[in-house]
Design goal:
Oligomer: heterodimer
Number of strands of chain A: 23
Number of domains of chain B: 2
Largest sheet of chain B: 2 strands, parallel
Largest interface: A-B, 29 and 25 residues
Strand content of chain A: 35-45%
Number of helices of chain A: 8
Number of strands of chain B: 2
CATH superfamily of the largest domain in chain B: MetI-like
Radius of gyration of chain B: 25 Å
Strand order of the largest sheet of chain B: 1-2
Mean pLDDT of chain B: 84
CATH class of the largest domain in chain B: Mainly Alpha
Low-confidence stretches of chain A: none
Low-confidence stretches of chain B: 402-407
Shape of chain A: globular
Number of helices of chain B: 21
Helix content of chain A: 10-25%
Order of helices and strands of chain B: HHEHHHHHHHHEHHHHHHHHHHH
Distance between the termini of chain B: 47 Å
Structural class of chain B: mainly alpha
Largest sheet of chain A: 7 strands, mixed
CATH topology of the largest domain in chain B: MetI-like fold
Amino acid sequence: MNPASSVAPLLLLEAVSCGLDPHRPVVRDLNLRVDPGEMVSLLGASGCGKTTLLRAVAGFIPLAAGQILIKGVAVARPGFSMPPERRRVGMVFQDYALFPHLTVAENVAYGVKGESRERLRAITGEMLERVGLASLARRYPHELSGGQQQRTALARALAPKPELILLDEPFSNLDVELRERLGVEVRQILETQGTTGILVTHDQHEAFAWGDKVGVLHEGNLRQWGTPYELYHQPVDAFVAGFIGQGTFLSGVSQTPEEIRTAVGILRGKPHGARIESGQAVRVLIRPDDVLPDARSPIVARVIRRAFRGASTLYTLELESGCQLQSLFPSHADHPVGDRVPIRVSTDHLVLFPDDRADGVFTCYPASI
Amino acid sequence: MILSVSGEINRWRLIAWLLTGVVLVPIGVILSAWITPEWAAWRHLLDTVLTTLLLNTALLILGVIAWVWFMGVGLAWLTALCDFPGRRFFDWALILPLAMPAYVLAFTWLGLLDYGGPLQLGLARRFGPNGYWFPDIRAPGMVVFFFSLSLYPYVYMLARTAFAGQGRRMIEAARILGRTPWGAFWHAALPMARPAIAAGCALAAMEALADFGAVSVFGFQTFTTAIYKAWYGMFNLPAATQLASLLLLFALAALTVERRMRGRARYFASDGHAPTARERIVLTGMAGWLATGVATLVFGLAFAVPMVQLALWALGRISQDLDGRYWSLLGHTLLLGVGAALLASLVALVLGLIRKRYPEDRPIRLAVRLASSGYALPGSVLAVGVMLALIGISKAMGITGGSGGLGAGVGALLLAYLARFLAVAMGPVESGLERIRPAILEAAQGLGSTLWEQIRRIHLPLLRPGLMTATLLVLIEVMKEMPATLMLRPFGWDTLAVRIHEMTSEGEWERAALPAVTLVLIGVWPVILLARKSARR
C-alpha cells in the first residue's frame, strides 16, 4: 500500500472540469490530491486555468463535471456548490482585496466569528505578531506598503484558522527581492500553524521555493505533478521540459535505450521521458548545468553571449555544427565572447523524446514552448 | 531674480483672490450679520416663523436623506452588482430625473393629484365628489417624497460608482471569510461605499436647502420661502439677511460633510473593475421581476409620468402659449444664461491656469478651492448677499439712488450666477488642465515658447472641449435657476423659470408646462452625456 494514501486527503479533485462558461470549461478532467500539511504549487502560464481551478476550490466557480472533496466531504459537483463561506478555506487574493474602510486589526478580525471581544483581540494580536505587523494594527490599508498589505491579507486569511489556504499569485505585485523573502516567510508561518497551502503562480522560482509538490498546468490539464527535482530533471513531456528551466534539445539517434549518439558524442545515462526504441531519432534535453568545461575534451565551442549571474555565468556556446548550447559555468571560469572553450556534456540521466523533425542531420534548438 | 519671481507669484495670488471674492464677499457680508446680531429682530422671528422654519427644514432634510438613501443605494446596488430584466436600460435611465428641476416635478405631480387634477376628477366621476378617500397631497410627507424623487440620482450615481469600483473581489473576500451574500453586502460593500453615499446624501440635502420653487408650489414654509417673503412681501432686508445667515450655516455644514466624505471616498475606492456580466448576481424569476418593478416604479414616478403629463399639457396649449411672449422669455433666459456661462468659463479658465502654474502654492490652492464651493450657496442667500454687497460698495463710493437701473440689476444677477455656478465650470476646465502634463509645457519652454505663447498655442487648443462643456453646463444651470433670478432680475427680465413660478403660484399648471418642457429638454442633454460617461466606465 502506498504510504501517502494511508492519510486521508485534505483536498481531492476528481475529474474536475470547470470554467466561467460551463460549455467551454477552461479546466478539463483534472485530478489532484493534497494531503494535510503539504505545500503545493500550481505553475502555469497565464490563461492555463490555474486561477480558475483555485476559484473553483474556493467556491466562486461551479463545476461542469467531476467533484471536489474537502476532508472527504463533497463541496462541489455539477449542479451543487457549497457556498464559499461554508467551506472553511482561506484565500489570499492577488490584489489582496483588503477592506479599505477597516484598519489592519479590523481586517484581520473580520473572518473570526463567535469569539468574545477579549478572545478576538487576542487572536488578532497573535496573528499580527506572527506576520510582524503588531505595530501597524491601527493603520488603514492605504497607509501600508505593498509588502505590509500582503502580510495583512495573509493574517486575515489565517485568523479564522482554516486548514487550507489558497494563494492566488500573492507575490506578483511585489518587487523581486521582497517576493523571494516573503515567499519563504509565508511558508514558514503556514508550517508553524500546520496549515496546508496551495500557491498559484506563473513564476517557476516561486513555485519551486514554495512547493514540496508542483503541478504544471497547461491548457487546463495537469501535465506533470511532482517534486521540483522531478520536474526539472525528469520532465514527462517536451512541453514540461521546455517550460521548466532553460535548456536545449539536441537531436540524436538512440543506439541502446541508455546510449544516444549526438553532435557532442555519445551521451549515456538512465533514460527518462518517452519510451524509445533502438535506432529511433530522438531529442535529448540538455540543461545548462549538464554542459561542463573540460580541458581534455575534443569538443570545442565558441562563446557567443554571456550573462554574468554572480556565482555563475550563463554562456551561450556555438558548436562547430552551428548548434547552440547554453551552459552554466562557475563564474571564476571567465571566458570573453569569441573565446573557444573545450566542453563536455555530462548526463547522468537522459531526458528523451521522439524527434518528429529528424532529417538525419544533428541539429539542436532551444527547448522553449 | 528671486524678487521678480516672488513678485510675479504675488500678482497671480492677488488675481486669484480677487476672483474668489465673487464667492467670498456675499458669504462674508451675510455672515457679518452674526457679528452684530440684532436681538430684537431675532426675537421677533422667534415669536413668529422661526420655530416652524426650523422644524420644517429639519423634517425636509431628514426626510429627504432617508428617502434618497433608500432609493439611491437600493437602485445602485441593483444596477451595479445584480442582473435583472431591463438592467442595461435602467442603469442610465435612472439618472434622467436629474434633468427635471425639482420645482417642475413638484408642480406636475401636484397638478396630477390635485383636487382638479385628472386622477381626482376620474375618482369623483366614479364615486361622487366625497365618495372616495384621497391622501392630503400637500402634507409634509408628500413634499419630502416628491423632493426625493428628483434628488435620489445624486446618491444613485455616487453609490453606483462606488459599488462598481469595488468589483466582485471584495464580496468574494468577505464570502471566503465566512459571510453570506447578504452579510457580504452589509458588512463589506455597504460600509466601503459609505463615504460616497454620505457625499450623495449631503448633495441632496444641499439642493433641498437651496430649493425655492418646489416648496413654494407645495406651500411648504422653509427658509428660502421666508427669505423671499421678507424680501418681496415686506421689503425687509435685515430680516431676509438674518434668515439667509441661518440658512447659510446649514448649507456650509452640508458642504463640509460632502467635501470630507468625497475626500475619504477616494481612499475607500479600490481599483477593482466593474463586474462583468458573468460576475453579477443574477436575479431570476420573481426576484428579477420585482427588481424590474421597483426600478420601473421609481423611473415612472420621477421621470416618465411627469414628462408625459407635461407634454400633454404643453401640446394642449401650444397654440395659445407659443407666442411672442414665450420667445421673449426664452430670449431673456438664453441671454442671461450665455452671459453667465461665458463669464464663468473665463473665470474658471483664469483660476485653472493660475493653479496649473503654481500647483504647490497654498494661497492659490485655497483660493481655487473656495471659489469652487459656491454651489453650496442657496440662490436666495446669494441674492441677499450680492445685493447687500452692492449696496455697501455704492455707499462706500458715495453713489446714491437705489440699485442703479438695468445695468446694475443684470450685473448683480450675473455675479450671483457666477458665484453659484463657477464650480460647474471649473469641473471640466480642471479635468482638461489635468491632461496637460507638465512635460508638455517643459517641452514648449524648451522650444523657446513664452508664457502667453504657451497659453495661446497649447492650453487653449487643448482646453477647447473642456471650455465648451463648461459653458454649456453653466448655461443650462442658469436657465433652470429660480430664486436668485426671481429676487435680482430687473424689471422686464422675466425668464422661463420665473414664468413657471408665476403660473404655478396661481395653480395654472397647464400654462407652466411649455416653459417646463423647454427646460427639461435642454437640461436632459448634459444628463445623457453624464450617463453615457458613467456607463462607459
